[in-house]
Amino acid sequence: MFDSITAKFSGIMRTLSGKGKISEKNVRDAVEEIKEALLDADVNLRVVRRFVNSTLDEALGEKVLQSVNPGQQFTKIVYDKMVQLLGGDESSTLNLKGKDATTVILLMGLQGSGKTTAAHKLAYRLKKDGRSVMLVAADLVRPAAITQLQVLGEKAGVPVFTIPGEKDPAAVAEKAIAKARHDLIDTVIIDTSGRMHLDQALMEEIQRVAKVSRPDETLFVADAMTGQSAVDIAKEFEEKVGISGVILTKFDSDTRGGAALSLRSVVGKPIKFIGTGEKMEDLEVFHADRIASRILGMGDVVSLVEKAQEQYDQAEAEKLQKKMEKNTFDLQDYLDQLEKVGNMGSADKLIEMIPGAKGNISEDDIDLKGLEKEKAIIKSMTRFEKENYRIIGPSRRKRIAKGSGTSVADVARLLKKFEKSKLMMRKIMTNKKLQAAFLKQLGM
Ligand SMILES: Nc1nc2c(ncn2[C@@H]2O[C@H](COP(=O)(O)OP(=O)(O)OP(=O)(O)O)[C@@H](O)[C@H]2O)c(=O)[nH]1
Ligand SMILES: [Mg+2]
Predict the structure, then answer these.
(1) In 122-262, at which residue ranges do the beta strands (DSSP E only) sit?
(2) Domain 103-287: homologous superfamily in CATH
(3) CATH of domain 306-441
(4) pTM as predicted
(5) What b/e readout covers 35-61, taking b as 16+ CB neighbours within 10 angstroms?
(6) Is any ligand 1 atom within 6 A of the Cβ of residue 115?
(7) Is 330 in the pocket of ligand 1 (CB under 6 A)?
(8) Ligand 1 test: best mutation among 107, 113, 117, 150, most atoms within 8 Å of CB?
(9) What CATH topology corresponds to 3-85?
(10) Which of 108, 146, 249 to mutate to test the pocket of ligand 1 (most atoms within 8 A of CB)?
Protein backbone atom coordinates (compact mmCIF):
# COMPACT_ATOMS: atom_id res chain seq x y z
CA MET A 1 0.00 0.00 0.00
CA PHE A 2 0.97 3.64 -0.49
CA ASP A 3 3.71 2.72 -2.98
CA SER A 4 3.05 5.53 -5.41
CA ILE A 5 2.24 8.12 -2.78
CA THR A 6 5.43 7.26 -0.91
CA ALA A 7 7.48 7.58 -4.08
CA LYS A 8 5.98 11.00 -4.81
CA PHE A 9 6.36 12.34 -1.28
CA SER A 10 9.97 11.19 -1.09
CA GLY A 11 10.63 12.95 -4.37
CA ILE A 12 9.09 16.22 -3.19
CA MET A 13 11.01 16.14 0.08
CA ARG A 14 14.26 15.33 -1.65
CA THR A 15 13.92 18.30 -3.99
CA LEU A 16 13.24 20.69 -1.14
CA SER A 17 15.88 19.40 1.23
CA GLY A 18 18.49 19.93 -1.46
CA LYS A 19 17.83 23.65 -1.41
CA GLY A 20 19.69 25.87 1.05
CA LYS A 21 16.98 28.50 0.93
CA ILE A 22 13.42 28.09 -0.23
CA SER A 23 11.06 30.66 -1.63
CA GLU A 24 7.35 31.04 -1.27
CA LYS A 25 7.02 29.69 -4.80
CA ASN A 26 8.99 26.55 -3.88
CA VAL A 27 6.58 25.91 -1.03
CA ARG A 28 3.51 26.50 -3.18
CA ASP A 29 4.83 24.16 -5.88
CA ALA A 30 5.60 21.45 -3.37
CA VAL A 31 2.17 21.73 -1.77
CA GLU A 32 0.57 21.57 -5.21
CA GLU A 33 2.46 18.34 -5.87
CA ILE A 34 1.37 16.95 -2.54
CA LYS A 35 -2.21 17.77 -3.46
CA GLU A 36 -1.89 15.85 -6.71
CA ALA A 37 -0.30 12.89 -4.97
CA LEU A 38 -3.16 12.73 -2.47
CA LEU A 39 -5.83 13.00 -5.16
CA ASP A 40 -4.08 10.31 -7.19
CA ALA A 41 -4.19 8.08 -4.14
CA ASP A 42 -7.97 8.48 -4.12
CA VAL A 43 -8.11 10.52 -0.94
CA ASN A 44 -11.42 12.25 -0.23
CA LEU A 45 -11.48 15.70 -1.81
CA ARG A 46 -12.48 17.56 1.33
CA VAL A 47 -9.77 15.82 3.27
CA VAL A 48 -7.21 16.82 0.64
CA ARG A 49 -8.31 20.46 0.72
CA ARG A 50 -8.05 20.67 4.47
CA PHE A 51 -4.64 18.98 4.47
CA VAL A 52 -3.27 21.20 1.76
CA ASN A 53 -4.55 24.47 3.21
CA SER A 54 -3.28 23.87 6.69
CA THR A 55 0.09 22.69 5.38
CA LEU A 56 0.39 25.78 3.23
CA ASP A 57 -0.57 28.12 6.09
CA GLU A 58 2.04 26.73 8.34
CA ALA A 59 4.78 26.32 5.76
CA LEU A 60 4.48 29.90 4.57
CA GLY A 61 4.97 31.17 8.09
CA GLU A 62 8.27 32.91 8.78
CA LYS A 63 9.56 29.88 10.61
CA VAL A 64 10.16 27.79 7.52
CA LEU A 65 11.38 30.28 4.99
CA GLN A 66 13.84 31.90 7.38
CA SER A 67 15.08 28.76 9.02
CA VAL A 68 18.56 27.33 8.59
CA ASN A 69 17.20 24.12 7.19
CA PRO A 70 13.95 24.92 5.41
CA GLY A 71 13.64 21.54 3.69
CA GLN A 72 13.71 19.72 6.99
CA GLN A 73 11.25 22.16 8.54
CA PHE A 74 8.87 21.60 5.68
CA THR A 75 9.14 17.80 5.99
CA LYS A 76 8.40 18.11 9.69
CA ILE A 77 5.24 20.09 8.96
CA VAL A 78 4.00 17.59 6.37
CA TYR A 79 4.77 14.72 8.73
CA ASP A 80 2.90 16.37 11.61
CA LYS A 81 -0.12 17.05 9.38
CA MET A 82 -0.10 13.46 8.21
CA VAL A 83 0.00 12.17 11.79
CA GLN A 84 -2.91 14.47 12.63
CA LEU A 85 -4.86 13.28 9.62
CA LEU A 86 -4.47 9.69 10.76
CA GLY A 87 -5.69 10.41 14.26
CA GLY A 88 -2.74 12.03 16.06
CA ASP A 89 -1.97 10.44 19.39
CA GLU A 90 -5.53 9.32 20.13
CA SER A 91 -5.58 5.90 21.69
CA SER A 92 -6.14 2.88 19.54
CA THR A 93 -6.38 0.47 22.45
CA LEU A 94 -9.57 -1.50 22.87
CA ASN A 95 -12.04 -0.61 25.56
CA LEU A 96 -11.83 -3.83 27.57
CA LYS A 97 -13.47 -4.48 30.92
CA GLY A 98 -11.62 -6.27 33.70
CA LYS A 99 -11.51 -10.04 33.66
CA ASP A 100 -14.33 -10.37 36.18
CA ALA A 101 -16.81 -8.98 33.64
CA THR A 102 -17.69 -9.85 30.06
CA THR A 103 -16.49 -7.52 27.33
CA VAL A 104 -18.45 -7.65 24.09
CA ILE A 105 -16.86 -6.79 20.75
CA LEU A 106 -19.14 -6.53 17.73
CA LEU A 107 -17.72 -6.62 14.22
CA MET A 108 -19.63 -5.31 11.24
CA GLY A 109 -19.04 -4.35 7.63
CA LEU A 110 -19.81 -5.20 4.04
CA GLN A 111 -19.44 -8.59 2.45
CA GLY A 112 -15.88 -9.77 2.08
CA SER A 113 -14.43 -6.83 4.01
CA GLY A 114 -12.64 -9.24 6.33
CA LYS A 115 -14.92 -9.45 9.38
CA THR A 116 -14.53 -13.16 10.00
CA THR A 117 -10.78 -13.03 9.47
CA ALA A 118 -10.51 -10.01 11.79
CA ALA A 119 -12.64 -11.76 14.43
CA HIS A 120 -10.25 -14.66 14.58
CA LYS A 121 -7.14 -12.49 14.51
CA LEU A 122 -8.54 -10.47 17.42
CA ALA A 123 -9.44 -13.65 19.29
CA TYR A 124 -5.90 -14.93 18.84
CA ARG A 125 -4.36 -11.63 19.99
CA LEU A 126 -6.57 -11.26 23.06
CA LYS A 127 -6.02 -14.88 24.03
CA LYS A 128 -2.28 -14.30 23.79
CA ASP A 129 -2.78 -11.35 26.14
CA GLY A 130 -4.19 -13.76 28.70
CA ARG A 131 -7.91 -13.23 28.14
CA SER A 132 -10.48 -15.99 27.74
CA VAL A 133 -12.23 -15.49 24.44
CA MET A 134 -15.32 -16.84 22.74
CA LEU A 135 -16.19 -16.30 19.08
CA VAL A 136 -19.85 -16.02 18.17
CA ALA A 137 -21.17 -17.09 14.77
CA ALA A 138 -23.93 -14.56 14.16
CA ASP A 139 -23.59 -14.59 10.39
CA LEU A 140 -26.58 -16.71 9.49
CA VAL A 141 -26.86 -15.47 5.93
CA ARG A 142 -23.94 -17.09 4.13
CA PRO A 143 -24.28 -20.88 4.33
CA ALA A 144 -20.60 -21.64 4.95
CA ALA A 145 -20.04 -18.79 7.40
CA ILE A 146 -20.44 -20.87 10.54
CA THR A 147 -18.04 -23.59 9.43
CA GLN A 148 -15.51 -20.94 8.39
CA LEU A 149 -15.56 -19.43 11.87
CA GLN A 150 -15.36 -22.85 13.50
CA VAL A 151 -12.25 -23.73 11.52
CA LEU A 152 -10.61 -20.39 12.35
CA GLY A 153 -11.64 -20.63 16.00
CA GLU A 154 -9.95 -23.97 16.28
CA LYS A 155 -6.77 -22.54 14.79
CA ALA A 156 -6.77 -19.76 17.36
CA GLY A 157 -7.68 -22.21 20.11
CA VAL A 158 -10.87 -20.45 21.19
CA PRO A 159 -14.43 -21.82 21.45
CA VAL A 160 -16.98 -20.86 18.81
CA PHE A 161 -20.59 -20.41 19.87
CA THR A 162 -23.29 -21.48 17.41
CA ILE A 163 -26.94 -22.51 17.60
CA PRO A 164 -27.66 -24.97 14.78
CA GLY A 165 -30.89 -24.15 12.98
CA GLU A 166 -31.34 -20.72 14.59
CA LYS A 167 -32.30 -18.04 12.07
CA ASP A 168 -32.10 -14.94 14.25
CA PRO A 169 -28.60 -13.50 14.77
CA ALA A 170 -29.77 -11.40 17.71
CA ALA A 171 -30.94 -14.54 19.51
CA VAL A 172 -27.55 -16.16 18.90
CA ALA A 173 -25.74 -13.11 20.26
CA GLU A 174 -27.94 -12.93 23.34
CA LYS A 175 -27.53 -16.59 24.23
CA ALA A 176 -23.81 -16.46 23.52
CA ILE A 177 -23.31 -13.66 25.99
CA ALA A 178 -25.37 -15.45 28.63
CA LYS A 179 -23.25 -18.55 28.16
CA ALA A 180 -20.03 -16.54 28.32
CA ARG A 181 -21.14 -14.99 31.63
CA HIS A 182 -21.99 -18.43 32.95
CA ASP A 183 -18.67 -19.92 31.83
CA LEU A 184 -16.72 -16.91 33.15
CA ILE A 185 -15.43 -16.03 29.70
CA ASP A 186 -14.23 -12.43 29.72
CA THR A 187 -14.33 -11.54 26.02
CA VAL A 188 -16.99 -12.24 23.41
CA ILE A 189 -16.36 -11.43 19.75
CA ILE A 190 -19.42 -11.41 17.53
CA ASP A 191 -19.00 -12.02 13.80
CA THR A 192 -21.94 -10.73 11.79
CA SER A 193 -23.02 -11.13 8.19
CA GLY A 194 -22.25 -8.72 5.39
CA ARG A 195 -24.07 -7.72 2.25
CA MET A 196 -22.84 -6.76 -1.16
CA HIS A 197 -24.27 -3.29 -0.71
CA LEU A 198 -25.69 -1.30 2.11
CA ASP A 199 -29.27 -2.23 2.58
CA GLN A 200 -32.03 -1.72 5.03
CA ALA A 201 -32.20 -5.38 6.05
CA LEU A 202 -28.50 -5.48 7.00
CA MET A 203 -28.74 -2.30 9.04
CA GLU A 204 -31.79 -3.53 10.90
CA GLU A 205 -30.13 -6.85 11.60
CA ILE A 206 -26.99 -5.22 13.00
CA GLN A 207 -29.06 -2.77 15.02
CA ARG A 208 -30.92 -5.64 16.67
CA VAL A 209 -27.71 -7.53 17.40
CA ALA A 210 -26.18 -4.38 18.87
CA LYS A 211 -29.25 -3.74 20.99
CA VAL A 212 -29.22 -7.13 22.71
CA SER A 213 -25.45 -7.43 23.02
CA ARG A 214 -24.68 -3.86 24.15
CA PRO A 215 -21.11 -3.99 22.83
CA ASP A 216 -18.17 -2.31 24.53
CA GLU A 217 -16.56 -2.03 21.11
CA THR A 218 -18.46 -1.76 17.85
CA LEU A 219 -15.80 -2.09 15.21
CA PHE A 220 -16.40 -1.29 11.59
CA VAL A 221 -14.32 -3.55 9.35
CA ALA A 222 -13.28 -1.76 6.17
CA ASP A 223 -11.47 -3.16 3.17
CA ALA A 224 -8.64 -0.78 2.24
CA MET A 225 -8.99 -1.81 -1.38
CA THR A 226 -12.48 -0.37 -1.73
CA GLY A 227 -11.07 3.17 -1.62
CA GLN A 228 -13.51 6.05 -1.31
CA SER A 229 -16.61 3.92 -0.96
CA ALA A 230 -15.30 2.52 2.33
CA VAL A 231 -15.60 6.03 3.70
CA ASP A 232 -19.25 6.46 2.71
CA ILE A 233 -20.15 3.05 4.07
CA ALA A 234 -18.42 3.78 7.36
CA LYS A 235 -20.42 6.98 7.67
CA GLU A 236 -23.64 5.06 7.15
CA PHE A 237 -22.74 2.51 9.84
CA GLU A 238 -21.77 5.31 12.19
CA GLU A 239 -25.14 7.01 11.71
CA LYS A 240 -27.28 3.89 11.90
CA VAL A 241 -25.49 1.80 14.49
CA GLY A 242 -22.67 3.91 15.88
CA ILE A 243 -19.07 2.75 15.69
CA SER A 244 -16.31 2.97 18.26
CA GLY A 245 -13.44 2.28 15.92
CA VAL A 246 -12.26 0.88 12.61
CA ILE A 247 -10.30 -2.17 11.56
CA LEU A 248 -8.74 -1.50 8.19
CA THR A 249 -8.06 -4.79 6.42
CA LYS A 250 -5.92 -5.74 3.41
CA PHE A 251 -3.35 -3.12 4.29
CA ASP A 252 -0.87 -5.45 2.61
CA SER A 253 -2.63 -5.08 -0.73
CA ASP A 254 -1.40 -3.12 -3.66
CA THR A 255 -3.84 -0.28 -3.31
CA ARG A 256 -3.41 3.47 -3.38
CA GLY A 257 -4.35 4.08 0.22
CA GLY A 258 -7.10 6.67 -0.16
CA ALA A 259 -9.40 4.91 2.26
CA ALA A 260 -6.76 4.74 4.95
CA LEU A 261 -6.03 8.43 4.58
CA SER A 262 -9.65 9.58 4.53
CA LEU A 263 -11.45 7.34 7.00
CA ARG A 264 -10.29 8.81 10.27
CA SER A 265 -10.89 12.35 9.22
CA VAL A 266 -14.33 11.84 7.63
CA VAL A 267 -15.80 9.42 10.16
CA GLY A 268 -14.15 10.92 13.20
CA LYS A 269 -13.48 7.53 14.78
CA PRO A 270 -10.05 6.03 15.45
CA ILE A 271 -8.55 3.34 13.28
CA LYS A 272 -7.64 0.73 15.88
CA PHE A 273 -6.08 -2.09 13.89
CA ILE A 274 -4.80 -2.85 10.44
CA GLY A 275 -4.96 -6.27 8.80
CA THR A 276 -1.70 -7.00 7.03
CA GLY A 277 -2.26 -10.48 5.64
CA GLU A 278 -4.42 -13.57 5.81
CA LYS A 279 -2.66 -15.25 8.71
CA MET A 280 -3.72 -15.18 12.36
CA GLU A 281 -0.75 -13.01 13.38
CA ASP A 282 -1.33 -10.42 10.66
CA LEU A 283 -3.07 -7.80 12.76
CA GLU A 284 -1.19 -4.71 13.90
CA VAL A 285 -2.24 -2.01 16.33
CA PHE A 286 -2.65 1.19 14.34
CA HIS A 287 -0.19 3.95 15.25
CA ALA A 288 -0.75 7.19 13.36
CA ASP A 289 2.87 8.34 13.71
CA ARG A 290 4.34 5.11 12.47
CA ILE A 291 2.05 4.89 9.47
CA ALA A 292 2.78 8.53 8.64
CA SER A 293 6.50 7.68 8.64
CA ARG A 294 5.90 4.77 6.32
CA ILE A 295 3.85 6.89 3.96
CA LEU A 296 6.54 9.57 3.77
CA GLY A 297 9.18 6.92 3.14
CA MET A 298 10.81 7.51 6.51
CA GLY A 299 10.41 3.89 7.63
CA ASP A 300 9.09 2.58 10.90
CA VAL A 301 11.94 1.55 13.12
CA VAL A 302 9.80 1.30 16.23
CA SER A 303 7.60 -1.40 14.74
CA LEU A 304 10.62 -3.19 13.37
CA VAL A 305 12.28 -3.36 16.77
CA GLU A 306 9.00 -4.45 18.33
CA LYS A 307 8.67 -7.23 15.83
CA ALA A 308 12.16 -8.37 16.71
CA GLN A 309 11.40 -8.17 20.41
CA GLU A 310 8.24 -10.21 20.02
CA GLN A 311 10.51 -13.07 19.09
CA TYR A 312 12.40 -12.94 22.36
CA ASP A 313 11.25 -13.28 25.88
CA GLN A 314 13.40 -12.14 28.76
CA ALA A 315 14.53 -15.64 29.69
CA GLU A 316 15.61 -16.49 26.18
CA ALA A 317 17.49 -13.24 25.81
CA GLU A 318 19.37 -13.97 29.03
CA LYS A 319 20.23 -17.46 27.90
CA LEU A 320 21.55 -16.10 24.66
CA GLN A 321 23.64 -13.56 26.52
CA LYS A 322 25.18 -16.30 28.72
CA LYS A 323 26.10 -18.34 25.68
CA MET A 324 27.71 -15.36 24.10
CA GLU A 325 29.68 -14.60 27.23
CA LYS A 326 30.93 -18.15 27.54
CA ASN A 327 31.49 -18.42 23.82
CA THR A 328 29.38 -21.58 23.66
CA PHE A 329 27.04 -20.25 21.01
CA ASP A 330 26.73 -23.19 18.58
CA LEU A 331 25.03 -23.96 15.29
CA GLN A 332 21.81 -25.02 16.99
CA ASP A 333 21.62 -21.55 18.59
CA TYR A 334 22.36 -20.03 15.22
CA LEU A 335 19.49 -22.03 13.73
CA ASP A 336 17.17 -20.75 16.48
CA GLN A 337 18.11 -17.19 15.57
CA LEU A 338 17.42 -17.83 11.89
CA GLU A 339 13.98 -19.16 12.77
CA LYS A 340 13.26 -15.97 14.68
CA VAL A 341 14.22 -13.75 11.77
CA GLY A 342 11.99 -15.82 9.52
CA ASN A 343 9.10 -15.34 11.93
CA MET A 344 9.33 -11.56 11.78
CA GLY A 345 7.40 -11.37 8.57
CA SER A 346 7.76 -11.33 4.82
CA ALA A 347 10.48 -9.34 3.09
CA ASP A 348 8.15 -6.70 1.66
CA LYS A 349 6.71 -5.96 5.09
CA LEU A 350 10.18 -5.57 6.60
CA ILE A 351 11.27 -3.26 3.79
CA GLU A 352 8.42 -0.85 4.53
CA MET A 353 9.77 -0.45 8.03
CA ILE A 354 13.40 0.26 7.17
CA PRO A 355 13.96 3.99 6.63
CA GLY A 356 14.78 4.80 3.03
CA ALA A 357 14.58 1.17 2.00
CA LYS A 358 11.44 1.30 -0.06
CA GLY A 359 12.40 1.57 -3.71
CA ASN A 360 16.08 1.07 -2.90
CA ILE A 361 16.12 -2.42 -1.47
CA SER A 362 14.34 -5.22 -3.27
CA GLU A 363 12.78 -8.28 -1.73
CA ASP A 364 15.70 -10.30 -3.08
CA ASP A 365 18.13 -8.25 -1.03
CA ILE A 366 16.43 -9.37 2.15
CA ASP A 367 17.36 -12.89 1.47
CA LEU A 368 14.66 -14.93 3.17
CA LYS A 369 15.18 -17.73 0.65
CA GLY A 370 18.84 -17.88 1.58
CA LEU A 371 17.65 -18.11 5.13
CA GLU A 372 15.65 -21.21 4.31
CA LYS A 373 18.71 -22.74 2.71
CA GLU A 374 20.82 -22.07 5.77
CA LYS A 375 18.17 -23.57 7.99
CA ALA A 376 18.05 -26.71 5.85
CA ILE A 377 21.84 -27.07 6.01
CA ILE A 378 21.97 -26.87 9.80
CA LYS A 379 19.06 -29.26 10.13
CA SER A 380 21.03 -31.84 8.16
CA MET A 381 23.83 -31.84 10.73
CA THR A 382 24.14 -34.22 13.64
CA ARG A 383 23.94 -32.82 17.12
CA PHE A 384 27.64 -33.38 17.60
CA GLU A 385 28.39 -31.40 14.47
CA LYS A 386 26.17 -28.53 15.56
CA GLU A 387 28.02 -28.32 18.85
CA ASN A 388 31.47 -28.68 17.30
CA TYR A 389 31.47 -26.98 13.95
CA ARG A 390 35.24 -27.29 13.54
CA ILE A 391 35.03 -31.03 12.97
CA ILE A 392 32.96 -30.55 9.82
CA GLY A 393 35.53 -31.54 7.19
CA PRO A 394 35.16 -32.33 3.47
CA SER A 395 33.32 -35.63 3.76
CA ARG A 396 30.87 -34.31 6.36
CA ARG A 397 30.29 -31.27 4.20
CA LYS A 398 29.47 -33.50 1.26
CA ARG A 399 26.98 -35.49 3.31
CA ILE A 400 25.34 -32.36 4.73
CA ALA A 401 25.03 -30.77 1.29
CA LYS A 402 23.36 -33.90 -0.02
CA GLY A 403 21.03 -34.15 2.95
CA SER A 404 19.89 -30.54 2.64
CA GLY A 405 19.66 -30.40 -1.15
CA THR A 406 22.42 -27.76 -1.33
CA SER A 407 26.01 -27.71 -2.51
CA VAL A 408 29.30 -28.13 -0.68
CA ALA A 409 29.98 -24.46 -1.45
CA ASP A 410 26.71 -23.52 0.29
CA VAL A 411 27.74 -25.48 3.37
CA ALA A 412 31.17 -23.85 3.37
CA ARG A 413 29.60 -20.39 3.04
CA LEU A 414 27.31 -21.04 5.98
CA LEU A 415 30.16 -22.25 8.17
CA LYS A 416 32.19 -19.19 7.31
CA LYS A 417 29.26 -16.93 8.14
CA PHE A 418 28.72 -18.70 11.42
CA GLU A 419 32.39 -18.34 12.32
CA LYS A 420 32.18 -14.65 11.55
CA SER A 421 29.12 -14.24 13.78
CA LYS A 422 30.97 -15.94 16.57
CA LEU A 423 33.89 -13.58 16.16
CA MET A 424 31.49 -10.64 16.13
CA MET A 425 29.91 -11.87 19.35
CA ARG A 426 33.30 -12.14 21.00
CA LYS A 427 33.92 -8.56 20.00
CA ILE A 428 30.61 -7.41 21.42
CA MET A 429 31.09 -9.28 24.65
CA THR A 430 34.55 -7.90 25.28
CA ASN A 431 33.48 -4.31 24.57
CA LYS A 432 31.28 -2.76 27.26
CA LYS A 433 29.77 -0.13 25.01
CA LEU A 434 28.84 -2.55 22.25
CA GLN A 435 27.46 -4.92 24.83
CA ALA A 436 25.17 -2.26 26.27
CA ALA A 437 23.84 -1.38 22.82
CA PHE A 438 23.22 -5.01 22.04
CA LEU A 439 21.36 -5.70 25.28
CA LYS A 440 19.24 -2.63 24.74
CA GLN A 441 18.23 -4.01 21.38
CA LEU A 442 17.08 -7.21 23.01
CA GLY A 443 14.93 -5.10 25.31
CA MET A 444 17.01 -5.76 28.42
N1 LIG B 1 -4.33 -10.00 2.14
C2 LIG B 1 -5.28 -9.91 3.06
N3 LIG B 1 -6.39 -10.62 2.92
C4 LIG B 1 -7.35 -10.51 3.86
C5 LIG B 1 -7.20 -9.66 4.99
N6 LIG B 1 -8.32 -9.76 5.75
C7 LIG B 1 -9.12 -10.63 5.09
N8 LIG B 1 -8.56 -11.09 3.97
C9 LIG B 1 -9.14 -12.03 2.97
O10 LIG B 1 -10.34 -11.48 2.47
C11 LIG B 1 -11.28 -12.50 2.20
C12 LIG B 1 -12.61 -12.21 2.90
O13 LIG B 1 -12.41 -12.27 4.29
P14 LIG B 1 -13.56 -12.66 5.32
O15 LIG B 1 -12.99 -12.53 6.68
O16 LIG B 1 -14.18 -13.95 4.98
O17 LIG B 1 -14.60 -11.49 5.04
P18 LIG B 1 -16.04 -11.27 5.69
O19 LIG B 1 -16.21 -9.82 5.90
O20 LIG B 1 -16.22 -12.14 6.87
O21 LIG B 1 -16.97 -11.76 4.48
P22 LIG B 1 -18.54 -12.19 4.57
O23 LIG B 1 -18.68 -13.08 5.76
O24 LIG B 1 -18.78 -12.88 3.27
O25 LIG B 1 -19.31 -10.93 4.69
C26 LIG B 1 -10.64 -13.79 2.66
O27 LIG B 1 -10.09 -14.44 1.55
C28 LIG B 1 -9.54 -13.34 3.60
O29 LIG B 1 -8.46 -14.24 3.63
C30 LIG B 1 -5.97 -8.89 5.10
O31 LIG B 1 -5.73 -8.09 6.04
N32 LIG B 1 -5.05 -9.06 4.11
MG1 LIG C 1 -17.66 -13.49 7.36
Answers:
(1) 133-138, 160-161, 187-192, 217-223, 245-249
(2) P-loop containing nucleotide triphosphate hydrolases (3.40.50.300)
(3) 1.10.260.30
(4) 0.74
(5) bebbeebbbbeebbeebbeebbebbee
(6) yes
(7) no
(8) 117
(9) Four Helix Bundle (Hemerythrin (Met), subunit A) (1.20.120)
(10) 249
User: Residue 18 gets which letter from DSSP?
Assistant: T
443 lines ligand 1 (CB under 6 A): no
Per-residue pLDDT of the chain (444 residues; tens, 9 = 90+): 777 888 888 888 778 777 777 788 888 988 999 899 888 888 888 899 999 999 998 888 766 776 667 777 888 888 889 899 899 888 778 999 888 899 999 999 998 999 999 999 999 999 999 999 999 999 988 878 899 999 999 999 999 999 988 889 999 999 999 999 999 999 999 999 987 777 888 888 999 999 999 999 999 999 988 877 888 889 989 999 999 999 999 988 877 778 888 888 888 899 999 999 999 999 999 998 888 888 887 766 666 666 666 666 667 777 777 777 777 888 888 888 777 777 777 767 666 666 666 666 666 666 667 788 889 999 999 999 999 999 999 999 999 999 999 999 999 999 998 888 788 777 777 777 666 666 665 554
Q: Is 404 close to ligand 1, i.e. is its CB under 6 Å away?
A: no
* 195 Cβ inside 6 Å of ligand 1: no
The answer, yes or no, to whether any atom of ligand 1 lies below 6 A from the CB of 324, is: no
Q: Is 297 in the pocket of ligand 1 (CB under 6 A)?
A: no
DSSP output for 154-192: HHHT--EE--TT---HHHHHHHHHHHHHHTT--EEEEEE
Between vectors from CA 342 to CA 338 and to CA 345, what angle results, nearest 5°? Answer: 155
Q: From the alpha carbon of 145, which atom of ligand 1 is closest?
A: 23
Q: Give, using CA atoms, the residue closest to atom 1 of ligand 1.
A: 277
